[in-house]
Amino acid sequence: LHRNPGETEFHQAAKEVLECLAPVVTKHPEYVDAAVIRRLCEPERQIIFRVPWQDDNGNVQLNRGFRVEFNSALGPFKGGLRFHPSVYLGIVKFLGFEQIFKNSLTGLPIGGGKGGSDFDPKGRSDGEIMRFCQSFMTELYRHIGEYTDVPAGDIGVGGREIGYLFGQYKRITNRYESGVLTGKGLTWGGSQVRTEATGYGAVFFLNEMLKTQGQSFDGKRVVVSGSGNVAVYATEKVEQLGGTVVACSDSSGYVVDEKGIDLELLKDVKERRRERIDVYAAERGAIFVPGGSVWDVPCDIALPCATQNELDGDAADRLIKNGTTYVAEGANMPCTPDAVKLFAEAKVAFAPGKAANAGGVATSALEMQQNASRDSWSFDYTEDRLADIMRGIHDRCLETADEYGSPGDYVTGANIAGFIRVANAMLALGVV
Ligand code: NDP
Questions:
Q1: CA-nearest residue, atom 44 of ligand 1
Q2: CA–CA gap between residue 130 and residue 83 (Å, rounded)
Q3: How far out from the chain centre does Cα 299 lie?
Q4: Lining residues, ligand 1, CB within 6 Å
Q5: Distance (Å, rounded) from C-alpha 14 to C-alpha 143?
Q6: I need a surface site. Which of 132, 192, 213, 350 has the fewest CB within 10 A?
Q7: Is the ipTM of this complex over 0.95?
Q8: 392: Cα within 13 Å, side-chain hemisphere
Q9: Could you tell me whether strands 149-152 and 112-117 are parallel, antiparallel, or unpaired per DSSP bridges?
Q10: Mutation to probe ligand 1, out of 194, 230, 279 (largest number of atoms < 8 A from CB)
Q11: What pTM was estimated for this model as a whole?
Q12: What is the mean pLDDT of the segment spanning 84-111?
């Protein structure tokens, strides 16, 4: 802690992983001898830089940019960029740390990293977003590359931003290096299913959890938080599998729609018009609750898909009292440690983000494969690969939890399985 003062979210994420590793280091003292855990907690490289840009009124604005290259034992650093005013080093490090284990769990050759800026895209014009992205990339370009570090999107960074970032990278380097970023558009090197992948993947994971208990989505009431990329496509897949999403949210409040969320309208409001969730409620004739907590809405399944620490102990308590039996984290670390503890005590089946939301980065790795082979796969083929990967992660978590004496515990399973693969690679690569 004293090495990284004030980095609250990083401490939280690291503690959660380290608490699960006691049985592993007992069985494998070689990890301790090689200081694997200490090395894992220290990023290989952290870059912090100035991002100046001009707004539409000609005023010079200033933001701070970050890229934390955490661990590259398994492959090039890989992880998204987040543009949100709350971004600081502690958030980027928590996300980068989680990313190491998540990427390891996918079984694909990708290391862990994360980046972003405290830039707030809300209310900014298209031109301002473009100028910001260009300025951000003017520094970032020298640190990234197909074999080095491959950023993608996250909160506040979607297809539009990846386009501006890629355009600037291409201009500065004079290279059409498709493999340098993922989440690209389909006509310029992107992959089918990447947009849908994190939300779809979380629901595939949950579907495997349901199956292990002889259940399905049929007739289940589901609440999703957020209404961004992950939330929208989680909702889409739940509806395809027979469940009903009765509520979703954004930072202004939540909407309750007992008929089930109208996905076309939600996409129109959120993706095309970039409006707030109350606009959806008004046009749909659904209930809008300003502020408040979407976790007050009774449901069988809760899918937190907005942001870190959005579901605390009180919210978990209400969900449990209202009969929720499954929770899968579409977002990164949306449940606080108190909430996770309460779910475990109440025997709520709980999937941690590093397993449940790994479908996004897995499909990014599939995008890298397609870029490397100058190929593009069909939607169905790519979706099948995603479903296979999620099934594999699910089974790996359960098998590992069993092996280390915590049957049915997805948190322990994910942390240990993710750790062992990267730790073995670190041992093989020597003290570097
Ligand atoms: P988006 O920016 O597309 O959407 C984020 C959603 O969460 C919005 O509805 C936003 O509401 C809401 N939100 C964000 N911050 C807050 C906050 N502080 N309080 C309340 N609501 C908030 O992001 P994504 O959907 O891409 O990401 C969502 C989560 O999923 C993040 O934790 C991200 O790290 C994780 N994730 C994303 C992946 C991806 O492929 N995109 C991959 C793996 C994980 P508003 O618009 O009002 O801010």
A1: 331
A2: 13
A3: 23
A4: 153-156, 198, 226-231, 250-252, 305-307, 330-332, 357, 360
A5: 25
A6: 213
A7: yes
A8: 17
A9: unpaired
A10: 230
A11: 0.97
A12: 98
